[in-house]
Specification:
Layout: E1 2-6, E2 9-12, E3 17-24, E4 31-38, E5 45-50, E6 57-59, E7 67-72, E8 77-82, E9 91-99, E10 107-108, E11 112-117
Parallel strand pairs: 2-11
Antiparallel strand pairs: 1-3, 3-8, 4-5, 4-9, 5-6, 7-8, 9-10, 9-11
């Protein structure tokens, strides 16, 4: 499956952005999906994920309560709603997918830059 992330940009602290991840090539609904991010000079880190079966979600502690992941299996798109943005949320955000029942993300989008100013 090919993934295309979009929606990044510049926001002020306390503001919001909504990222999208459009999938093509294979049946999107077969895959568990996740968001990751990588800040300059840091390792890539998990942001959150959403299950294919019931769209239940899990989040990293740093974003819990501020970010919300959703998916639309008809539109083959996953979303990341980011509210109450902080400067430390500045990073390149990547969407990724993995087959149901596995633990390794094997499909990755190209990343979209999010910059939060203080």
């Amino acid at each position: 499956v090919q993934l295309q992330a979009s929606g990044g940009g510049l926001a002020q602290a306390g503001g919001f952005l909504r990222l999208s991840c459009a999938a093509s090539g294979r049946t999107f609904s077969f895959y568990e999906m996740g968001w990751f991010r990588q800040a300059p000079g840091k390792e890539r880190e998990f942001v959150g994920s959403i299950r294919r079966s019931d769209s239940s979600t899990s989040y990293a502690g740093a974003v819990k309560g501020r970010f919300t992941i959703s998916r639309d299996n008809v539109k083959n798109t996953m979303y990341l709603q980011m509210n109450s943005l902080k400067p430390e949320d500045t990073a390149v955000y990547y969407c990724a997918g993995r087959p149901d029942g596995t633990t390794t993300y094997v499909f990755w989008g190209q990343g979209t830059q999010v910059t939060v100013s203080s």
